[in-house]
Request: fold
Amino acid sequence: MRWEREKGRLKVELLGDFNYERVFKLRELLKENEELEIDLKNCRFVDTEAVDFLYNLKLRGRRYRLLNRPELLKKVCQILGVEV
Amino acid sequence: MKSEIVLPNKVLAIEPAVEFVRSWGLKAGLSPEKADELALCADEVITDVVRFAFPPGEEHYFVISVEVKPSEIEVVLRELGEPFDPDAHPYSRERALKEGKFEGAGIEVVKHLSDHFLFLNKGRAGKEFRIVKRVPAKHITELLSEERLTEEPAVSKSYVLKPVTPEDAEDISRLIYRTYRYTYPKEDLYYPERVRAYIERGEKFGVIVRTEEGEPVGYFAVIVKSDSPIGEVGEAVVSPAHRGRGIMKRMMASLIEMAKERGLLGLYGEAVTVHTISQRVNAKFGFSSTALLLGTFPSARIVGIESNYGQRISVVIDFLHLIERKEEVFYAPVRYRKILKDIYRGLGIEAKAGRGRVGELPAVSRLKLNVNSTTGTAEIVVKKAGKDLLERVVKKRNRLFDKGIEVVYLDFPLSSPETKEIPDLKPYGFVFAGLLPLFHKAQDYLRFQSVKGSYDMSKIKVYSDLSKRIKRIVGRELREVGKRKG
Reply:
C-alpha cells in the first residue's frame, strides 16, 4: 500500500483487495486522533475484516473517507446490514 | 478439470490463494464481477483458517482445490486445524450494529455470495469448506424461437450417424427440448455452451443421428467417469416421430465400439425407475443390473408419468463389461455374499468370497467425499477403513442432511478384507444398494445408502430378475430403518 501524511490525515492507496493483511498494516499505521482516507480504486472487494475495522472506527467516532468504492462493498454491507 | 495448491497458514498466503481461486473462476467462465464474488468467498474462509484454525505460532498447511465443470466451479478448502463449528457462531446484525462485533460475518457473506456452501467437520481428519458458484449460461429457449425449437423434422428414408463434435451442441439442446420440453433430468443439456464444453474437454463422447436434410433426430452420449476408466451411457434421445426405426440400436452399437476404442473397461447406465423402458434397452444390449440407488435425482415431471410422482427418482445401475473378467475374489459381510455372487454371475464373473485376514485397523479412516449439489446427493468413498469409520460417516451424513443433501451413498472396496467386517449398518440408517463394478480407480465397490425422506417401493419399477431381487433387499432394509412408505 502507498501512504502519506498530510495535515493530520493519513492518506492511503491500497494496491490490492482490502483484506485482513491490509487491515493489520493500517492498524499499525494509524495514529490516535488521525483522520483516514483510503483510495479503493485497486480493490475488487472489501472483506468482512475490513468492514469490521471501518465500522469500529465509526463506532468510536473516528473520521474516515473511502474513495472509489468497489461495487461489491455495497453488496457486502447489504448482506451484513451495516453501513461503512 | 481439477487443480490443487498447498499453502502455509500465514497471513501472506491469503492473497495468492485468493488470486488462484479468482483466476480459475474467470477460466471457468464467470464474469469478472462473479469471479470477484467467488474470490471474496475464498478470502473469508481462508482468512478464518489462517487466523483461527491453529494455535498461534504453530506452522501448518492448508489445501485449496478447485474443480471446474461446465456448469459450476467448486472450491474446496481442507485443513487439519482445531475443531470449529461455524453454525455455533452465527452472525448477528444487532450485535454488529451495537457492539461492533462481527463474529460469523465472513460465513454469512459466503452463504449469500455462493450458490452452495457446505462446512464439514471431519473429526481428526480436519475440516472442509466447500463453495460452489454456478457458471451462467443461456438456456436453449433464450437462443431459439419456440417455433424453431418445436419443429419436428419429416421422417427420412435414411439416417446419417456421426460422432458428435462441439458444433453439434445447439442441435443437441434443441433435440432434448423438442422431445422432453422441460422434463429431462440432466439440466446441462438445455445449455449449448455447457454441452460444447463437455465435448471439447473430452468429458463426454457420443453420436448424433440426422435426417437426409441434416435435421437432428437422435443423440446418445457416454460421460466418462472422472475417477475410473468407465463411462455412463447417460444421455439418450430419439425424436418421437423417428422412433421404431432402429436409431437407438445403431447409436448404442456405435457407442460400445467408441468406448472400446477409447480403452474404457466398462459402460453403465443409470436407468430411471419411473418406467422400465431404459432398463429394457440396456438389457437388450447385454447390460446386467447391479444396484438400486434410491433418490438419485430430484423429482421432476417425466413425460408420460403422473405429474406428482411424490418422491425423488431412483435408478437401477446396469453394467456392461468391455473387458473380459472371468473370476474375482471379493470381501463382503456374510449377509450380502449370496446376492453379490449372483450380481457378479449376471456380469459373467464367477466370484468367490475371500477369507483374507484383517489386521488391526488404523486409528483414522481415509475417506473421500463427492458432493453433487445440483442433484442433492453425496458419496462417501472408503479408501481405508479405520477405527473411527462409523462415527465419522454418521457425523458426515448428518451434516450433509442438515445442509440440504437428500441421499448419501457409502462405498466400500470389495477388494479389501476389512469390508467383510462391516457391521450391520441399518442401526446407523444405511441400507444395501448393490455392487458398483470398477466404479472407483477401476475397483469394485459395495454400496450402501442413507436417505433423508421415505420411499414408496411400489413406485419404483424394475425390469430384470436381478434388479427385482435387489429391490426386495433394499425395500426390506428400508422398512427396518423406518424409511419405507406404505
